């Protein structure tokens, strides 16, 4: 359905009318490529549309609210000559990607950038965190009128021994929640609606010692928050106090490994909501290449409380450093899964009732560093 029109406007019309081709962008660990891939939701195929050379590896990539910009980590992979920083790209379209700037951030922290997310609400500031030794900082980056990263306007400290691996906004962007993997904690900061700067509100210890919160996501009604616990291979549910915005653990956890397996052999990865927020996806990774990862889906009630864990399926590989799951933004049916042990992206299809899922498309992207995370552009 692509390219039948003589103009870009006609082509986009054809795409939206038929809704067949969806574009995704994929980052890497260590290699300097950014991939554009296309998923045909009728033929169930994945194809490489562009391989864009970039100056820094984006081990985590995030789109701006209007998809005009892409922000990425400048992943240092333990290479101390690479300073903590975030890269900013302009997307004319998904195959015309221009690097604008790479901005140093983190203040006194010297560890590599590990995660970045853009506020969907004004002033659309960008939030970055760091991982490794001397990583207990976060950075707030401003953007210019074109959405290009401007400057690290705030470098704030969690604790000197902490290292946050993932952050998420409350639905109104009043709060930023941070999963502190090294510090085994969950942090709440308030966000200034004018500047985007953050202020400490609360920090709480994870449910168990060594649980190690890695990523966090918030239900759109703001009542529940979910944390993937990397160390204990679990998904934990928190309820959010509606007056203070502070989450508390609601004693609900689900396993991301089979009974009898040892959490020490895994490092759980991701937790993310489906398009309608009726389902929650979560993944685990095998620490060893021979230990398969897991993918799991939960059904949520209208408030966001977890009703059931529907399945726990082994993934086809360990996932490497990835096994990052990104549900599609247009239907509950599809989610993208990335692997860096051999290098591929897969599309998983969820059954209508959420009871099971299957791989329906697979694309190898073998460059020695792919694939970190994927974002759906369309
Ligand atoms: C570290 O990064 C610098 C700058 O990109 C590069 O020149 C150097 O080769 C890297 N070192 C290692 C060991 O990868
Ligand atoms: C993307 O933008 C470039 C430059 O503006 C243009 O040459 C190319 O045709 C565009 N691609 C699509 C798929 O619209
Ligand atoms: C934050 O840290 C970066 C260096 O990592 C520095 O360039 C920037 O000026 C700092 N921002 C502020 C507001 O101090
Ligand atoms: C960075 O270190 C300097 C010197 O120790 C200190 O004055 C400053 O407050 C620190 N900055 C942050 C953001 O922690
Ligand atoms: C919370 O922050 C305080 C003040 O920085 C710190 O002493 C404490 O260790 C932190 N607790 C957790 C669980 O991170
Ligand atoms: C969670 O369990 C603890 C210890 O058993 C108990 O004190 C607390 O009330 C429980 N909280 C909830 C929300 O059920
Ligand atoms: C669920 O799907 C997997 C393939 O992803 C398949 O192997 C398995 O048999 C299915 N389970 C059920 C209960 O249908
Ligand atoms: C993308 O391009 C880079 C640079 O030319 C190359 O090294 C890499 O192998 C390419 N990736 C794929 C999947 O072909």
TrEMBL record:
Q: Which domain of life is it from?
A: Eukaryota
- One GO molecular-function annotation for this sequence? 6-phosphogluconolactonase activity
Chain segments annotated as transmembrane: none
One Pfam short name:
Lactonase
Q: Which residues form the signal peptide?
A: 1-19
Q: What Gene3D superfamilies does the database record attribute to this sequence?
A: YVTN repeat-like/Quinoprotein amine dehydrogenase
Keywords (alphabetical) are: Signal
Q: What is stated as this protein's family in its record? A: Belongs to the cycloisomerase 2 family.
Cross-referenced PANTHER family, in alphabetical order? 6-PHOSPHOGLUCONOLACTONASE-RELATED, CYCLASE, PUTATIVE (AFU_ORTHOLOGUE AFUA_6G11580)-RELATED
Name-wise, this protein is Carboxy-cis,cis-muconate cyclase
State the species of origin: Neoarthrinium moseri
């Amino acid at each position: 359905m692509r390219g039948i029109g003589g103009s870009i406007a006609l082509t986009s019309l054809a795409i939206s009318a038929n809704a067949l081709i969806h574009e995704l962008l994929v980052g890497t660990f260590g290699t300097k490529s950014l991939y554009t891939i296309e998923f045909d939701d009728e033929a169930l195929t994945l194809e490489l549309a562009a391989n864009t050379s970039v100056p820094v590896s984006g081990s985590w990539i995030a789109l701006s609210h209007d998809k005009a910009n892409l922000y990425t980590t400048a992943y240092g992979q333990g290479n101390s000559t690479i300073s903590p920083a975030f890269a900013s790209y302009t997307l004319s379209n998904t195959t015309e990607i221009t690097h604008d700037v790479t901005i140093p951030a983190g203040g006194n922290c010297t560890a590599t950038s590990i995660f970045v997310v853009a506020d969907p609400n004004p002033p659309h500031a960008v939030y970055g965190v760091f991982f490794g030794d001397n990583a207990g900082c976060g950075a707030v980056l401003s953007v210019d009128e074109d959405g290009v990263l401007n400057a690290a306007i705030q470098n704030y400290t969690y604790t000197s021994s902490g290292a946050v691996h993932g952050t998420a906004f409350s639905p109104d962007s009043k709060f930023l929640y941070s999963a502190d993997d090294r510090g085994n904690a969950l942090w709440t900061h308030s966000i200034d609606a004018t500047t985007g700067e953050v202020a400490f509100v609360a920090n709480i210890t994870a449910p168990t010692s060594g649980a190690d919160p890695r990523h966090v996501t918030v239900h759109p009604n703001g009542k529940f928050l979910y944390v993937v616990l990397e160390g204990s291979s679990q998904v934990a549910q928190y309820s959010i106090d509606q007056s203070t915005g502070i989450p508390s653990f609601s004693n609900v956890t689900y396993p991301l490994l089979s009974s009898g397996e040892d959490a020490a052999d895994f490092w759980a990865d991701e937790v993310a909501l489906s398009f309608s927020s009726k389902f929650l996806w979560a993944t685990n990774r095998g620490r060893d290449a021979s230990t398969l990862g897991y993918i799991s889906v939960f059904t949520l009630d209208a408030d966001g409380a977890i009703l059931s864990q529907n399945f726990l399926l082994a993934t086809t590989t360990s996932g490497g450093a990835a096994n990052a799951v990104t549900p599609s933004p247009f239907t509950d049916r599809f989610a993208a899964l990335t692997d860096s042990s051999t290098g591929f992206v897969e599309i998983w299809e969820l059954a209508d009732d959420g009871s099971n899922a299957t791989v329906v498309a697979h694309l190898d992207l073998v460059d020695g560093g792919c694939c970190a995370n994927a974002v759906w552009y369309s």
